[in-house]
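Interim report to the steering committee. The following record documents the input for DUF4268 domain-containing protein (147 residues).
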Amino acid sequence: MFSKEEAAQLRKEFWTNFGKSFPRKWLLYNTKIKGFSFKFVADKKQALVCLDIESYDPIKNELLYEQLVDLKSVLKEQYLPSIIFDKQYQLENGKIIHRIYVAHNQIFNIHNKNTWQAAYEFFYKNMHQFEEFYEDFEDFIKRAIYE
């Protein structure tokens, strides 16, 4: 068991090492759609690459999610075969969002450095694919709320 300070230091080291191992500028929050962002998630149980839809406007969220559902087969076939669509994903704080994500299928714990390298490779490969998909279909996705 780690103290809060030790756990915080490990998390910081994890993300710093990831940035050094795979230096590049990720899209993440720069989608130009408020409440529509790509995220890396790493905790004591899992590592995920996510697209979260969580604006304050539930209608906008629904429109964006449905636009992505329309692209689901393309996303699965050409980019991320193990993608998961979750219309009612509950965050640790209890908030319900729309989340589209890929889960790392190996044992992972952010407190176990032996699991880090595989997670880094998973993050890099899958976020790259997610960003490629977004770049290819950005205009179509934005049509859900801008037309």
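The chain has one domain: 4-146. The committee is asked to note this result when reviewing the revised timeline.
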